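Lab notebook, bench 4. We co-purified these components, and the gel suggests they stay together. Before we commit to crystallization screens, I want a quick structural picture of the whole thing.
Request: model the full complex, all chains together.
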Amino acid sequence: MTTKKRVGVLISGRGSNLQALIDANQAPDYPAELMVVISNVPGARGLDRATEAGIQTCVIDHKNFASREDFEAELETALNEAGVELLCNAGFMRLLTEGFVRHWLNRHINIHPSLLPAFKGLHTHRRVLETGAKITGCTVHFVRAAMDDGPIVAQAAVTVRPHDTEDSLAARVLEAEHKLYAHALKLVAAGTVRVEGEHVVGMAPEAGQTALFSPPLPDTL
Ligand code: GAR
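Here is the predicted assembly.
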């Protein structure tokens, strides 16, 4: 059996995506092992999830540091101590400096609740509803210095329903996020995919499924 990649997870809050990764890690053949969960927010719910799963936790409150670089130096120390090889942002709401991003280049992934490059940033679902978009979704991508930017590992599409509210849409996208993140981390940790020229390659094109239509296509046009 190949050795599992040692993974660190960065969180800022609820940690439901972290929970999806914890659950995926229960499978004996999952190619990643969660070594440490680090939160920049004291008391984040995700810290309890990690503790319940027996994973080491660490709080590094960015408010206690004079600069982003000082905060990140502390982050690096914690990641080194845990022997982390691969980093996952799971609802980590802090921009990282170019130096940090460069150090973890192509070893650092993030999940965002939209079909990137559309709807980067905050209040994604509200903005999707405002535009009248019919399909949205979620994306796992390698991290680059710009917010919610970088080579796309995997995406899931979610249909917007006529009476969706921000909350109902967020809940359906979140369900897709949980499946997508576990799947994407598996691809990255196993080395199935890699970055070439700022695109992620390695998946056979025929692995893609049929297009998603919203409204659905009738049987005959
Ligand atoms: C998730 O929806 C995640 O995609 C989003 O924050 C939420 C965290 O929820 N991340 C971003 O918007 C990053 N730009 P969780 O703490 O329950 O995983």
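The longest strand covers residues 32-39. Worth comparing against the SEC data before the next meeting. The chain has a mean pLDDT of 96.
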